[in-house]
Amino acid sequence: MRTEKDPDGPAARGGSGAVGSLSRVLRRGVVISAGTFALLQIVAFAQIVTLARLLTPAEIGLFAAGTVLTGFLISTSADGLAVALIQRDATDIEDAADTVFRASLLTGLALSLAALAAAPLIGLVFDSTAAATIAAAGSGVTLLHSLTVVPDALMQRRFDFRRRLIVNPSVALTNAGVAIGCAVGGLGVWSLVVANYASYVVWVVLSWSLGGWWPGRGRPTMRLWRELARFSFPLVLNGTAWRLREVFETVLVGRRLDEAAVGQYRYGRRLCMLPGTAVVEIGSYVLLPAFARISGDPERFRAGFRRALAVVWTASAALAAILVALGEPIVVVLLGEPWRDAGLALAAMAGFGLGEGLGAVSDEAVKGSGRSHLLHWTTAVSLVGTVGFLLVLAPLGLFGVGLAVSAANVAMGLTAVVVAAHVTGARVRDVLGGLVPAVVAGTVAVLAVGALEHLVVHSDRLALPLGLASLAGEALLVLGVFLVVLQVVAPSLAGELRGSLRRFASARG
């Protein structure tokens, strides 16, 4: 049935009268996402920098080891069903919502119990009883996460940006505030466990308060569950592969090195994820429902994919250039000399954001088309690439692990682009060729500013205020060089990007 809460779901595909309205909604969504994400970045940086001064790399690594299983289970539990709900035809959305709720709740409960039972295995893998204790204590977050699936999916489905404006900032502020407060109080690694639970409780409360949905409005059926599961199965496999990569990386670092190295790896990975996550959070939240609506119009679908890919890839390349050129000194200046290895890992993992940018657009296009089974290709490349690159490069230490992460993510992203090009009807050669100008611009920027920093300036040897000012100036210089080179090698692309920025900026009015 159709409800007032969902008057215009993704099933309204390709209607010509809705073109202007949809474009305005998308621009407004990107502006809202960008604004709230800027706040989230500030909170995340403050949390990382503060906790790095309060906790040791070994304590951070212990938490990473103890939560590696729950993180894996959360990503495989019900997110695929959430995407199926977003993409679902509006005629039976209430029945589908109740079906997804029951399925995700039962799955979350079962996986929480499984995580609790498997906690001793975590201790054996990392040779740490403390890691096993943390794994057992944190097993309940999987159940809490399952409660957010339906209200969050329904908000995203109807372009309700309160999740971006209210829920996400509140969750981030809760996690940071509780973690820092408990760390100051001397709880050590347990400050992170308490903060994790506190943030999930806030997430559940706000999602249900704002989602405007309660179970019991529809009638769940096994037929609906089978249909939704059939659509979401490739997404579950894709998410499973993604988290298996992180599990494999964490276990490899923990087994070959030590808990302190796991902490260095976790912080390097977390910092490298911020730019890539920025691109995903700002753009992909609106791309999935948008692609779902226009997938029935081949010309609009193809043009929308090409345009979104150009913007996201260019932004990803510019951010990656900053990390390669300045990653190590950024970490040393912000976190201190004990975290230098995390800085090396950060610079090596700069390719993570590149792969995320490619996948952010391409995967959403594939999902929006309803052909989610094609994501098996990216899943296979993700798993095989991660294992292969890690086995070859891990002997180089954290730097080698970082390079392996970058290589695997870029390979996965390129695979996603090829798949999405076939889905949208775009020529693969043209799509891949459109990626080259940003690579050229990023390479020139890295060589120029990287040489300046590492041969002349040495920001990590300066006092904190001078070091921060120096890095800020060099980051702006990277962007300046990037844009100048992009204008020279691809003036039409640069013009199109400026036009996109102007259109998005107009959404503020």
From TrEMBL:
Sequence intervals crossing the membrane: 30-54, 60-85, 105-126, 132-150, 171-191, 197-216, 310-336, 342-362, 374-393, 399-419, 431-452, 472-494
Species lineage: Bacteria, Bacillati, Actinomycetota, Actinomycetes, Pseudonocardiales
Highest taxon of the lineage: Bacteria
Keywords: Cell membrane, Membrane, Transmembrane, Transmembrane helix
Family affiliation: Belongs to the polysaccharide synthase family.
Membrane topology term: Multi-pass membrane protein
Organism: Pseudonocardia sediminis
Keyword Transmembrane helix among record annotations: yes
This protein's name: PST family polysaccharide transporter
Cellular compartment(s): Cell membrane
InterPro entries assigned: Poly_Biosynth_Transport (IPR050833)
A cellular-component GO term for this protein: plasma membrane
